[in-house]
From TrEMBL:
<dbReference type="GO" id="GO:0098542">
    <property type="term" value="P:defense response to other organism"/>
</dbReference>
<dbReference type="InterPro" id="IPR044839">
    <property type="entry name" value="NDR1-like"/>
</dbReference>
<feature type="compositionally biased region" description="Low complexity">
    <location>
        <begin position="220"/>
        <end position="231"/>
    </location>
</feature>
<keyword id="KW-0812">Transmembrane</keyword>
<keyword id="KW-1133">Transmembrane helix</keyword>
<dbReference type="InterPro" id="IPR004864">
    <property type="entry name" value="LEA_2"/>
</dbReference>
<feature type="transmembrane region" description="Helical">
    <location>
        <begin position="49"/>
        <end position="75"/>
    </location>
</feature>
<dbReference type="GO" id="GO:0009506">
    <property type="term" value="C:plasmodesma"/>
</dbReference>
<dbReference type="GO" id="GO:0005886">
    <property type="term" value="C:plasma membrane"/>
</dbReference>
<feature type="domain" description="Late embryogenesis abundant protein LEA-2 subgroup">
    <location>
        <begin position="110"/>
        <end position="206"/>
    </location>
</feature>
<protein>
    <submittedName>
        <fullName>NDR1/HIN1-Like protein 3-like</fullName>
    </submittedName>
</protein>
<keyword id="KW-0472">Membrane</keyword>
<feature type="region of interest" description="Disordered">
    <location>
        <begin position="218"/>
        <end position="243"/>
    </location>
</feature>
<feature type="compositionally biased region" description="Polar residues">
    <location>
        <begin position="232"/>
        <end position="243"/>
    </location>
</feature>
<dbReference type="Pfam" id="PF03168">
    <property type="entry name" value="LEA_2"/>
</dbReference>
Amino acid sequence: MASHLNGAYYGPSIPPPSSKSYHRPGRGDSGCGCCGCLGCLCNCCCGCILNLICQILITVVIVLGIAVFLLWLIFRPNLLQFHATDASLTQFNFTSPNNNNLHYNLALNITVRNPNRRIGIYYDVIEVSAFYEDQRFSTVNLSQFYQGHKNTSVLSPSFVGQNIVLLGTDGISSYNSEKSSGIFSIDVKINLRIRFKFGLVKFGHYKPKIRCPLKVPLRSNSTSSSSSSSNGVFETTKCSYDL
């Protein structure tokens, strides 16, 4: 029977397909190998950390803003107010035209107003300097003190003596002109170091600088405090913060 069978029906045996296959990943393969997984994990962690930092910063800014607003509502802070209310200049002259030695005698009254209802002020350092033509000719240090709420205090610096003041051509011309008019332009600058007090709490260490541009009439020792050799009267001058 086997000799009658046709070879078309029975060919050579076909081997079964292999159960294992090998695939060599290319360079652009996006499969999750060891390095690929680590890279994805690092990117994910960096993104989470940056997002967390941003959220923390935003939260801190909001909390600080609310705290500052609440402190402002509680304290209602106002700037100190400075006014030069009186000035007495009885000497302001050079010993000779060729000598730069300035002789001066200047006394001032400067009021300091604390307009705050809940904040007291400690004045730890009070340095007052007098300038002419942008040159300092004298400096005095006043005693420290405490200023209560809604209170006005008076600073009374006096500048007496002599000092070298070098004036250029323009400065000498300005001095001669002011000497003729009997009114001198003198700048007074106040350097402070202050602390604040709220209840029993003391805080801060601030160094404000105050500038008072004054027009001071020269007065004779024999005249009253309201007149001068040129019939000039000192006018109350508001001082400003020197930034």
